[in-house]
TrEMBL record, chain A:
Record flagged with keyword Cell membrane: no
Gene Ontology CC annotations of this record: cytosol; elongator holoenzyme complex; nucleus
Family: Belongs to the ELP5 family.
One Pfam match: Elong_Iki1
Species, as recorded: Eptatretus burgeri
Name of the protein in question: Elongator complex protein 5
Primary site of residence: cytoplasm
Keywords tagged on the record: Cytoplasm, Nucleus, tRNA processing
CDD domains associated with the record: Elp5
Annotated localization: Cytoplasm; Nucleus
Positions of the UniProt region annotated as Disordered: 292-312
GO biological process: tRNA wobble uridine modification
Automatic annotation (TrEMBL), chain B:
Gene3D superfamilies found in the cross-reference section: P-loop containing nucleotide triphosphate hydrolases (3.40.50.300)
InterPro entries named in the record: ELP6, P-loop_NTPase
GO cellular component terms listed in the entry, alphabetical order: elongator holoenzyme complex
Alphabetical list of CDD domains matching this protein: Elp6
The protein, known as: Elongator complex protein 6
Family in the record: Belongs to the ELP6 family.
Pfam families linked: ELP6
Pathway noted in the entry: tRNA modification; 5-methoxycarbonylmethyl-2-thiouridine-tRNA biosynthesis
Naturally occurring in which organism (per UniProt): Eptatretus burgeri
Gene Ontology biological process terms, A to Z: tRNA wobble uridine modification
Amino acid sequence: MLSELCKGVLPQFTVIVDSVENSGRSLFNSLVKTTAMRGDLVQVFHFEQSKVELTAGFEDGLVSQMLFHDCFSDPVGWNCTEGILNEPLERETFREMVQKSAGSIGSRPITVAFDSLSPLLWANGWPRLCHALHSLVSQHSKHGMSSCRLLCLLHCDVHPSGETAAVCHMANTTLTVLTPPPKQALSSSVGEMLQIEASACRQSGRGAVEKATVTLDADLTANVLLPTMFVKEKLTEDVNSKNDPTADLPFNLRLSDDERCARDGLVLPFYISAKRKQAILQGADADEGQIFYLPDREDDFDEEDPDDDLDI
Amino acid sequence: MYLLVEKGTDGGFLTHHFITSYIRGGYKVCFLALTQSFGHYCSVAQKLGVSLQAARDRGQLVVFEGLVESLRIMVGTASQHEASPLYFLRNAQKGLMDLYLWVKGAMEPTNDADWKGSVLIVDDLSCFSILSVPLQAILHFVHYLRILLCVQLQGDLVMLVATADDCVDEEEEFLLKSLSHNSTVMVHVEGLSTGACKEVHGQMTVASPRKPSNVQVYQYKLLDKAIQLFPRGTSSAVL
């Protein structure tokens, strides 16, 4: 999975989750470059890097084939332009921008990259952002656009964990940058080394997790070293059973048909039905209480009054 | 972009170091002094052999005196309020745009002098969060400063951020992390975990988010006019 990603074969929605200690920016730049080299029309919404910083290490011919939406220079309009973060994010905002830019290019597959989602998440909150991203991924075919893939960078340590999880939940593949083992950190003189955990969620409900060390060369080429594959069986079911509070109950919460019939037929001892009420009111003999006493053979039956000595 | 983080200790010596170094190096310096008076910085710099007043007179140093300006906001007239870059203290909706525009005006290149480069020093950024400026407004302010200094002027941006030793609140942590993501060099200064010491005043960590494997940790001792740095555990008092 990771080796395919490093070759620029991206699933529909990929999120790179990083932190200050383990930055994923170089991996993001690398994937943007590789995707562009594969022939995709890459449209980059860059919020945190200038175009120059972003395309450092890219060939000039490659840069000219890409499209850049500059959200970096004036995000909130302080330099007298229309800031993208000033207006609330509409569901169709990104789709319209992508479609407008791609209109004149032709029918190359489109990859939209966000560097990063964090300013958008701060400004708009996760529901609006998720709607906008979802619209970008799902509705492109209705509007005559060719297939569109998303590649996003997200800083997990600057948002509450729930917001990050909400965005990652939409993604097909989440690449988390982890702390590299100390030995690898020491031997990183060959290039930048990143420890990546890739978790993919397939449509079948199965999830796959792969951990690998990725090296990044000076020309941003990513190579996978020694991948370790862990397949989580039926990831979605695991999650459901884990969260099911009724899993280990010692009783049934539902009845079968036979059990329901038996329950309906049972008359509770304190329940007075109309028939029984009528019988009590009429004083029916059948219901009058009687005592039957059958003495045993060994019983010592005393004829005397047991209260004789009380002088009553 | 240099991010200086002081955690539970006084990292002011770093500010003094950067101001005097840049003045000596022939840079045009814009200084947002939000925590101390200009007189304080002047006397420390004088001790380090640099006259800030002289630099200010020849136009090399532009100082925004936050304490003086905030007093004007508190007691001045309405017209003075609206003209002030700190108008956000009275009108929270304004944000830090006016202060950014003030910096932009102060950093505009002039023809009368040829400086090696431009630098903005902020001491310290935590003042804004203490004054209840929303986190997003602070991040926008820093973003625009970064564009102005690091992209347009190809200069440096040096910011000091103070964090509490314990009980770090979530918003403060988000601010620090957000700034760290876009900084080139981070310098963390903190006291020793074992407590105060006469010979070792604290620990300094220099890191770069772009090169996570390259983290350098030193211990330091503040001398009268200099900082003595040494690897951990190699203080002359120990060896």
